[in-house]
Amino acid sequence: MQVSRRHFKLTALAGLLAGWWQPWFGSSSKALAAALRQAEGAAAGPLVGAVTPDTAAIWMYTPADAKIEVRCAPADDPANSLRAAIEPIPTDDLELPGQAWQAALLGLVPNTVYTYQVILDGQTAPEHAGSFRTAPLQGAPVNFRLGLTSCMKVEKPQDSWPLFLQQEPDLHLTLGDTVYADTTDPRVQWRHHLRYRQSPAFARVIRSVPTFALWDDHDFGPDNSDGTAKGKEHSLSGWKRVWRNPGAGAPDLPGAFYRYAWGDVEFFVVDGRYYRSPGKARDDASKTMLGDAQFAWLVAGLKESQAKFKVVASGSTLHHSMHDGWRVYTRARHQFFDAIKTHRIDGVVYLSGSLHNSLAWEHHESDRVGYPLVEVISSGIANSKRLGFATLDFDTTHSDPAMHVRIVNGSGKLRQEQTWRLSQLSHG
Ligand SMILES: [Fe+2]
Asked: What SUPFAM superfamilies has UniProt attached to this entry (predicted)?
């Protein structure tokens, strides 16, 4: 065969690219595929999930059926130990070699540090022990630190998780792309979650910081997926098995959304995937981000909430994502902003992820809201150049409560910090 000069050049270029690409991407994806296959054969967890003033939920996976116990005691009174009620989490359809467990710790004291130990077949191990602080009483003035993350890829550097732990957050909210499974197949999603939880740096975080989670596209379905995703109900049942969130959806309204309080700060974690119109749909009055029923749930909750700060959290950014955020859902965004103004709801802030960058800013359409609408974006703790995350310190013990935001990058450097007072985030 005669080879033209142009063909030769293209072939040589393709060969060069393949040579560069294969060892870097090919081998890491092969290694990940192998690790995913093996994930069900190793323990994962414990994970501390939802914590309330008097309860805590713990999740664990054992690679074979096991005799499991959880002992827990106040950190300053270790003799006063209590045992958790433990039950298996139904996973029959996944045909796992092992078993997932949920433990409920009940009768705890508010705003108190507890240590716990998971005991498997009579054996203790340091990696199966952890600690957490219970939530303060709902409505009580508080001073606490929220750690905010999103976007973790297990095959990327995990160096920011130790930096995150050094910030000593009281609780952790992770706003999506908690895994990059890119499917609605629950077995594949499950393997990803196990594998991610077997990452030592992440394991240390989830066993000692109460972790509340929301999905975004990559843990809900394919990239940029929406409410038309086939099999989304399987994603939802898998999601409920793998996290111990305070809830998922409302009666007759499936979804991953829920609300919870930390003293007199309240979080409304809204599901921007299950009901979302396709991003490419015309940006007209029929285009929805949350769906009408979930949006009504959100507004009703914001109206009735007595919390000083009302934190609305979801995966998608309000403005910075060009094709996959509220920016291309104009009616939905304006409905949200207008509801805050119409009902004179004070102290609303918005948290998001997805961007693979982190920052805090005031939305340029804040006139619609009636006060500066602060958005804190925390994204790419293990999937970006900067490996960043955010912390939010809420202090409502003063006459003018404050929210202090810090953006930390992967070298531990503080990139941004700013304080907003409740008096600034009010209709006056
Ligand atoms: Fe992401």
From this structure: Metallo-dependent phosphatases
